[in-house]
From TrEMBL:
The family this protein is said to belong to: Belongs to the class I-like SAM-binding methyltransferase superfamily. rRNA adenine N(6)-methyltransferase family.
CDD domains listed in its UniProt record: AdoMet_MTases
Transferase listed as a keyword: yes
Entry's EC annotation: 2.1.1.-
PANTHER family: DIMETHYLADENOSINE TRANSFERASE, RRNA ADENINE N(6)-METHYLTRANSFERASE
Domain of life, source organism: Eukaryota
Ribosomal RNA adenine methylase transferase N-terminal domain: residues covered: 1-161
GO MF entries: RNA binding; rRNA (adenine-N6,N6-)-dimethyltransferase activity
Keywords attached to this entry: Methyltransferase, RNA-binding, rRNA processing, S-adenosyl-L-methionine, Transferase
PROSITE patterns membership: RRNA_A_DIMETH, SAM_RNA_A_N6_MT
InterPro entries for this protein: KsgA/Erm, rRNA_Ade_diMease-like_C, rRNA_Ade_Mease_Trfase_CS, rRNA_Ade_methylase_Trfase_N, rRNA_adenine_dimethylase, SAM-dependent_MTases_sf
Gene3D superfamilies in the record: Ribosomal RNA adenine dimethylase-like, domain 2, Vaccinia Virus protein VP39
Entry protein name: rRNA adenine N(6)-methyltransferase
Amino acid sequence: MVELGPGPGALTQVLIERYGTENFSCIEIDQRAVQVLNERHPTLDVIHSDVLQVDYPTLQSSLSPNSPLAVIGNLPYYITSQILFALADASHSTAVRTATVTMQLEVGQRLVASTSTKAYGILSVAFQIYADTRLHFKIPNTVFYPKPKVESCLVGMSFVGEDELRRRLDGVRPSDLRRVVQMSFQQRRKTLRSSLRRILMEVHNGDKNKVNDIVTGGRKVEVPAGVKARAEGGDKFAIQQELPEEWGSMRPEELKPMQFIELTRLIYGEEEDKENYELGVKVWRKLKHGKG
Ligand SMILES: C[S@@+](CC[C@H](N)C(=O)[O-])C[C@H]1O[C@@H](n2cnc3c(N)ncnc32)[C@H](O)[C@@H]1O
């Protein structure tokens, strides 16, 4: 068990009473809190570090090589989503299996939001693909001291792990998925046709995943799946930088998480070796709170 941001140890105390200190480590950035914890709990492993710099697979192999980490904590709210995304990236390496964390209510609501609601966005799509996520209960601001302005909640995440994640992605690269989801929600009121135009251009120009050939004026041109290209005579050709109509007219909040995977496949194609391609360990963790 790893507690993120234990502070002087209000939650830590309760956890130690219940589970002891043997399989328990904490990560705290504040030197004063680290000192307090060391004095109060001499047998507890307290790591003085920034949680955003933690490499969970390395941490797991040093702390608990035979079983994945269970993460717990009353998270620092200003970096909640970055912490969560880092956990998602680690979840398919078997480093992290569960996270039970408090956060701002609004962020918890985004994680579990359904399509066509204001709260539905990047966090909802990512955490409904990578984990089974539950908002357990709300926590009023009156139970904290000093009293914060915002309400909180307890969220439980059970990460689906590598095999199930590969089944869900079915060859789609997480980095491509992240880009499509991010671009789609950057302008959440616009249609996908307009929000994703830049990606379609990049995919075409970027020499990546070229899967269809067209021939024009005796020249062979390759274009990505889902992008229509038209021979225009001579050696001229035009790429129709548009998504198929059924996708193009939709707005991002209408797409279920699994539909984002389908959309990504349409634009970027998929890996052939679906069992073994790199899922990536720093895909989502760079995303910041607030966008979508
Ligand atoms: C919301 S407080 C929770 C304190 C305590 N767990 C409690 O429940 O009372 C967040 C804690 O995270 C720590 N923290 C903030 N940013 C951090 C970071 N980047 N890495 C590690 N700890 C951090 C703060 O010093 C603080 O102790």
